[in-house]
TrEMBL record:
Identification of the protein by name: 5HT6R protein
Spans through the membrane: 27-48, 68-87
Topology with respect to the bilayer: Multi-pass membrane protein
InterPro entries documented for this protein: GPCR_Rhodpsn, GPCR_Rhodpsn_7TM
A GO molecular function held by the record: G protein-coupled receptor activity
SUPFAM superfamilies the record matches: Family A G protein-coupled receptor-like (SSF81321)
Compartment list: Cell membrane
GO CC list: plasma membrane
Keywords of this entry: Cell membrane, G-protein coupled receptor, Membrane, Receptor, Transducer, Transmembrane, Transmembrane helix
Record region (Disordered): 113-134
Lineage: Eukaryota, Metazoa, Chordata, Craniata, Vertebrata
PROSITE patterns assigned: G_PROTEIN_RECEP_F1_2
Length: 134
């Protein structure tokens, strides 16, 4: 016996394939971002740590070279705010909300009151959160 297919069955299969494809693209993009961040971290800090160990063992590293490697590591920290917006749309949107230089012209600027309400326990849920704390 063959069960006749209903028109919704092929659509459901295509929906699940589309969902899986979208999920795999997000996972691939997240892996790429993480790989770039970790790669930049190792390129920037690994020479510093190797030189630091060499300095402890043989005291043969010039101070100027050690300073250059230290600043290379510091430069890695300045690269993170540049790398995140390039690869993460959500991060870019969040930065656009709070930094005037990154905001689009049509987006409203958050008020200081809304920011302070969001960051404090004042507001409609303050009493319940205070009860939970006590």
């Amino acid at each position: 016996l063959q069960v006749p297919r209903t028109p919704s069955q092929p659509a459901a299969g295509s929906e699940s394939r589309r969902f899986a494809n979208k999920h795999s693209k997000k996972a691939l993009k997240a892996s790429l971002t993480l790989g770039i961040l970790l790669g930049m971290f190792f390129v920037a800090w690994l020479p510093f740590f190797v030189t630091n160990v060499m300095q402890a063992v043989c005291s043969c590293v010039p101070a100027g070279f050690f300073d250059v490697l230290t600043w290379l590591g510091y430069c890695n920290s300045t690269m993170n705010p540049i790398i995140y917006p390039l690869f993460m749309r959500d991060f870019k949107r969040a930065m656009g909300k709070y930094l005037p230089c990154c905001r689009r012209s049509g987006e409203p600027r958050p008020s200081a009151i809304s920011l302070s309400m969001r960051n404090s326990n004042s507001g409609p849920h303050a009493a319940t959160s205070l009860k939970n704390v006590l």
